[in-house]
Specification:
It is built from two helices and no strands. It is mostly helical and 73 residues long. Helix 1 packs across helix 2. The longest helix is centred in the last third of the chain and has 27 residues. The N and C termini lie far apart (60 Å). The relative contact order is 0.11.
Length: 73
């Protein structure tokens, strides 16, 4: 059972790494993210941390836009 859970955790990590790679390619406007950096996303915890940072940045932008629209009137 433990081996199965480790296998599932590894597969989930690889899937999250692929999702993070595709999101970083979409978000990259200045050309700082290269495809050769994909191998570093297999480091445990790194893609999860990047996804958390992206979500926080998106929430920050939405909050900033909402606050600015409140003070516009």
């Amino acid at each position: 059972m433990l081996a199965f859970l480790i296998f599932v955790a590894l597969m989930v990590h690889v899937i999250i790494a692929h999702i993070t790679h595709s999101l970083l390619e979409e978000v990259d406007n200045n050309g700082w993210y290269k495809s050769k950096y994909k191998k570093f996303l297999l480091i445990p915890g790194l893609p999860e941390a990047i996804l958390v940072i992206l979500v926080l940045m998106i929430c920050g932008v939405i909050t900033y836009a909402y606050i600015i629209s409140l003070f516009k009137d």
